């Protein structure tokens, strides 16, 4: 088999807070992401008091979406993963009535996608939440956020039930352990007790959203999303093998709860041994047990190693791991491990026996425009080609793989650092770290490469 399944979904993934801009237009409220314009967490500083931040405009997808979606169609996309900004629908998060201007905006987006026969794949909360919920309620540490999220999910399911049939609840839900402000709206120095309590509320909210989606949009599918932080044992020493199991359990815990509907024994042991007590209400466990997701989606950028001996760790996609001496690194120091994607796909398939979806995978690099105005990004082509070859191998292994959406099909703003220089896209956007640039879109060499991959359903990939 040189091709992917005939119904395989091809596309890319973007997030509202990293492409839209228009941070204060049409009634939008401030989000936690708006408080991280340059990677400096200053939650008591009003976003409106700042000089123009790069996220204020981002790449102006808010106004340029017809042009960008047309480019995605030109590449052959059959799927676009995108997120709804919660603060466009409920600006402060606790309102009883939604903001119609925000709802109407996403109607336009979904209609534009339909015009081009591109399936919308929508994330309810992608690295952002209403900032007012952190100020007024203390973020996800408060149970009240379950009610607010339930209201938000109900609103968008009802509004878009005829337009959106693929949903995700929380983006990279396990990253709250590493960046709690972004994940659950808690200060970075929060204790594990507080973070895991907030995570419990988020897991209950996610389960409620799954149930609501099944009720309101019965022909839809809704999944979860994990940051695929795969760790190998650093050596074959049994202590290193155990260390890798413990490291992997930190993120697999989220998949276990969202798929199997209960807290796994290894997590209950961790809570006991670390003095963590989760305050649950009667019925919480039943809510989790009755709301298994339809599929597992995940991001994959790099693998890591785990060792029983203290070793210096390096940060990949937020999560730190012991470097692997057998792998090369990207310009940002992330380990490049295409075969790790095949290993992860087989691992998740064996563990959960549910369909899988690769919803983020890509290479951040400093792209240069040459004297002819071209961007020759052969390094990105090689990275994506090698990963897709391994994804195809996993399908041959028997993995049920629904689709593949690259991260950042168009250059976008980094969430935590507001960098534009770390580019992922097939489409170059003329905007720079200092906010200068024309926002002109230019097709990179990889644009035409991915176009051919989609046209041939993977047959053009090079072994």
TrEMBL record:
Pfam families documented for this protein: Glyco_hydro_1 (PF00232)
UniProt enzyme class: hydrolase
GO molecular function: 6-phospho-beta-glucosidase activity
InterPro entries xref list: GH (IPR017853), GH_1_N_CS (IPR033132), Glyco_hydro_1 (IPR001360), Glyco_hydro_1_AS (IPR018120)
GO cellular component: cytosol
Keywords on record: Glycosidase, Hydrolase
EC number in record: 3.2.1.86
Active site positions: 360 (nucleophile)
Descriptive protein name: 6-phospho-beta-glucosidase
Species the sequence originates in: Vibrio sinensis
